[in-house]
Structures are given as C-alpha cells and as structure tokens.
C-alpha cells in the first residue's frame, strides 16, 4: 500500500467548530480502520479541542488530533498532509459531511486499487465525485456532477476528458488526491489566508495523469450563511486575499510549458474564473480604490503571461468583466447576478 498504513486520510481543519464538528466526524467514522481522521484544532477558543480529544480517546486507531496555533485553513491542511498515513488524502471542512452510501462506494474502489488491482494496473492520481450543496437562503439542494466531463467508473487521462461548463470547474469538495501526488507537487498552502482551496485544487494538476470519476453524491455542505467565507459581503471585505490567491495562481505556471492541451485549456479557464470572481467583487464593492485594484490585477496578468492574458481578456468572461464605464460595470454586475441565480454559488 505504497508503504502507507491507511487507505484514506481525512484532514478536518477546525476553528471554533464546537457546534457542528460532531456531524462531520461522525460521517467519517464508518470508514473504520481503513481510514484515519486527522482533526486540526487551529487555535480554537471554544471547546473544539476538547471535543477532538474526546474522539481521539474513544477511537485511538482512527482519530489523531493536532493542536496548533491559529494559522488558517491552509495551515491546517499543511499540518495534516505532513503526517498523513493514507494512500489517498481528503480535506473535509468541519461544517460539512459525507453521504454514507457514496462514502462506502468510494472506499471500496480505493481498496480495490490499493489491494486487488491487477499487475500493471495503475492507481488513479485523483478520484472525482459529485458534491451536493444546500442553499439556505434559496431553499434549494443541488448536486454538481461531472458526467459530461469524465467517463464514469474508469481510468481517464486528460486527453479523454470532455468540456467543463463554467459552473463545473473542479472544487476541493469533489476531489480525493493520491497523497504522493500532493507531496510530489510540493504544495504548501499560504497561512492566514482565505480561499486557498483554489490553490489546493489547481497547483497539483500538472502532476495528475490518471483520474477516476464516480457518479455518486459524496460531499455535502451548506451555503448561504451570512458568516461564510463565500458570502458575497464577506468576500468583498476580504477581496485583497482573493486577489493574493489569484496572483499566486498566475505565478505558478507558464501555460506554454503545460504540454497536454486539454489540461492547459482547463487550467487557463480556471484562471479565467479566478479573474472573473476577483473582478466582480471589486466592481460590486463600488469603491474607486477597488476599481484601480481591478485594473492592476489585469495588468499583472498581462505583464507576467501575455498569451494567457490575451486568451482570458478577450474570452467571454474577460470581456464581460471589462466593459467600459459605469454602464459597463452595471452590465457586468447584472451578468453576475443572473449567473448567481442560475448556478447558485454563494
């Protein structure tokens, strides 16, 4: 098992999570001795640490607790990855949970590739599953799948992937990386920074050669709470961190050196989405200083990767976010509102 002791490592970063972390952890426990659950107490000021320790005491072979100074979500993921013993690695936010039936199906497939696969049958570098969000404000539940992108239940290289829709890009909730892929990539997430899940998804992708899609609703979470990091008002208040993450992703790769065309196209489109999110937040803040930050962000992309800039700036998203004048910004904002209604994000 690649000299690892478990099939699957879960990392659960927790900060002041006492009111909801039990549901998350209880949803992970049915994996039994095949999994490990690494709970990161990220400097919590409530009873998070006590709850985590109680689980470790009750399930010493399954649960490991790390108490650390507050460093943010990325710091928690870093700490978990550093000690993970599983062949595969999954981040689960402390206010989210897993569907029990889908969980067992995924674990069964992981066991197969780790234990029963035939000679020469390689393990997937990445498992992709559906995720389900429950929107509190709009009272809707929606499953986000990838059936048009990946063939179900078979190994798939990038060359065999289909077309990702704008609402369908890969997110942390959908992914289970092979641990060695993450380690090979050298990923280290920034500390004290929100929105680093985008880096977690994006940075290892050039190391991924083989993917496996399971059409099961695996990961579940709520959106629409006022205090969530993806709430629009919260995102606007933290827009500098969104810009920092976007610039960090711009700096990661020269797209000309990504040899696989479909992977290169996907990564370029992912950057386009990041540029769009940053731009619309800056526009909707209705702040002159933020409009200057928007201009500077696009200039940063142009200066560092002109070819990528050209593709993004003159694509549909880039043109929509850069319509001139006040009326142009109103149209950009209206387009965002319509997309938000259709897709249901934040």
In words, what does this structure look like?
The structure is a single chain. Helices cover 45% and strands 19% of the residues. The chain has 13 helices and ten strands. It is globular and about 60 Å long. Strands 1, 2, 3, 4, 5, 6, 7, 8, 9 and 10 form a ten-stranded mixed beta sheet that branches. Helix 8 packs parallel to helix 10 (288-304) and helix 10 (288-304) crosses helix 11 (306-313). Residues 342-346 have low confidence and may be disordered. The chain is of the alpha/beta class and 346 residues long. Strand 2 (35-42), helix 2 and strand 3 (63-68) form a beta-alpha-beta unit. The longest helix is centred in the C-terminal third of the chain and has 24 residues, at 261-284.
Oligomer: single chain
Number of helices: 13
N to C succession of SSEs:
EHEHEHEEHEEEEHHEHHHHHHH
Q: Any idea what the radius of gyration is?
A: 20 Å
What structural class do helix, strand and pairing data support?
Answer: alpha/beta
Number of DSSP strand runs: 10
Based on CA inertia axes, which overall geometry fits?
A: globular
Distance between the termini: 39 Å
Give the biggest beta sheet. Answer: 10 strands, mixed
What are the segments in which pLDDT stays under 50 over at least 5 consecutive residues?
A: 342-346
Task: Walk me through the topology.
Blueprint: E1 6-14, H1 21-28, E2 35-42, H2 48-58, E3 63-68, H3 73-83, E4 86-91, E5 97-98, H4 100-116, E6 126-135, E7 140-144, E8 155-156, E9 175-178, H5 179-185, H6 197-202, E10 211-223, H7 232-237, H8 239-252, H9 261-284, H10 288-304, H11 306-313, H12 316-321, H13 325-343
Parallel strand pairs: 1-2, 1-4, 2-3, 6-10
Antiparallel strand pairs: 4-9, 5-10, 6-7, 6-9, 8-10
Helix pairs in contact: 8-9, 8-10, 9-10, 9-11, 10-11
């Amino acid at each position: 098992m690649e000299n690892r002791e478990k099939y699957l490592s879960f990392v659960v970063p927790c900060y002041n999570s006492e009111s909801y972390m039990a549901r998350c952890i209880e949803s992970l426990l049915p994996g039994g001795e095949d999994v490990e659950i690494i709970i990161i107490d990220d400097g919590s000021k409530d009873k998070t640490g006590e709850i985590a320790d109680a689980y470790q005491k009750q399930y010493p072979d399954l649960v490991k607790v790390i108490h650390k100074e507050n460093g943010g979500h990325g710091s928690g993921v870093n700490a978990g990855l550093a000690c993970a013993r599983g062949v595969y690695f999954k981040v689960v936010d402390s206010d989210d949970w897993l569907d029990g039936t889908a969980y067992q199906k995924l674990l069964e497939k992981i066991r197969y590739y780790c234990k029963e696969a035939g000679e020469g049958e390689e393990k997937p570098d990445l498992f992709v599953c559906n995720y389900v969000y429950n929107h509190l404000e709009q009272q809707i539940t929606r499953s986000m799948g990838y059936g048009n992108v990946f063939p179900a239940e078979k190994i798939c290289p990038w060359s065999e992937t289909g077309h990702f829709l704008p609402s369908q890009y890969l997110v942390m909730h959908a992914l289970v990386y092979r641990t060695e892929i993450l380690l090979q990539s050298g990923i280290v997430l920034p500390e004290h920074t929100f929105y680093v899940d985008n880096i977690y998804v994006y940075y290892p992708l050039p190391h991924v050669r083989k993917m496996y899609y399971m059409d099961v609703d695996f990961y579940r979470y709520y959106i629409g709470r006022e205090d969530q990091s993806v709430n629009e008002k919260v995102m606007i208040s933290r827009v500098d961190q969104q810009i920092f993450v976007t610039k960090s992703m711009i700096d990661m790769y020269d797209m000309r050196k990504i040899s696989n065309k479909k992977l290169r196209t996907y990564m370029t489109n992912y950057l386009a989405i990041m540029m769009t999110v940053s731009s619309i937040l800056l526009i909707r803040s209705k702040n002159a200083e933020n409009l200057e930050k928007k201009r500077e962000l696009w200039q940063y992309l142009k200066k560092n990767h002109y070819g990528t800039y050209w593709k993004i700036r003159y694509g549909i998203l880039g043109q929509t976010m850069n319509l001139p004048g006040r009326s142009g910004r109103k149209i950009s904002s209206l387009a965002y509102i319509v997309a938000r209604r259709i897709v249901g994000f934040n």
